[in-house]
Amino acid sequence: MQTNLYPLQFNPILKERIWGGEKLKTILNKPIVSPITGESWELSAVEGDCSIVANGDFKGYTLIEIIENHPEELLGTKVFEKFGKQFPLLFKFLDAREDLSIQVHPNDALAQKRHNSFGKTEMWYVMQADPKSRLIVGFKEDSNATEYVEKLEKNELLSILDTKEVQKGDVFFLETGTVHAIGAGLVIAEIQQTSDITYRLFDFNRKDAHGNTRELHVDLALDAINYQRGETQKEYAKFVNQSNTMVDCPYFTTNYIPLQGEMVVNKTEESFTVYMVVDGYFSIDINGLEYNYQTGDTVLVPAALQLFTLSGNASLLEIYIS
Known about the structure:
The protein is mostly beta strands. It has two domains: 13-221, Jelly Rolls (Sandwich); 244-320, Sandwich (Jelly Rolls). Helices cover 14% and strands 39% of the residues. Strands 1-2-5-12-7-10 form a six-stranded antiparallel beta sheet, with no helix packed on it. Strands 14, 15, 16, 17, 18 and 19 form a six-stranded antiparallel beta sheet that branches. It is globular. Residues 10-116 form the Phosphomannose isomerase type I catalytic domain.
């Protein structure tokens, strides 16, 4: 497949959050201006938050405009067949200076019925963790809607939720319906379905600068929650200069590449590939042209670019749809 496309970088879409901080600047080199910046949307086709190309001939174009003109070349034959001209994934970096709210995301069927949206299956890679930082992921034991409501009303929800202390490199896979929260002191790389549908269950009774609490979605969450205990943490291999599988699900595949030197990539034209640089520096060489990246960068390699070389010393997340 011939193409005039090339590896695409996008301007980060920066989001203020009540729980955000400044690590997206100090650790990931993002041009934040607010001391409560919680999210950097790296690659998005969410309505109202569409990524804009930052490099090369397509600089200034939106992701949606490029897909409109080069659907199969960018998305891939298999992805285009399944999703049409929709970009099915959303990529973010998050900085939690404070605890995020406890929340849950609906599955595809419920999200389609209520919001005309995809569901929100997602995964987290821990990029940086302050000592004793933790995540909330699901229930300690199997529960039910009655117990959940009872504990929520008594302000005891945390007593039945599973808390895990985490460190750099930990990976968690959150299927829809998993009750979860990112704890204070963490920087996270997040890969998810294209959806911004979140049901907030509990927000630690905190108030914003105007003394208001944030809206909760207790009733909406009741039939969205999976009350069964599940294992969310994923173990993975770390073979150098190889794609080591972390998560392989119907919505995306994510591999871990510890890059030391060079690695040749030869892939099909079925799917685009995204690289998130979670540590270090690397370059992509395509037909003698070199593109350089550093910690905190995210790059979209169009599906039509099938043969290229990665070189450098970096830890990479490699994402595509299989």
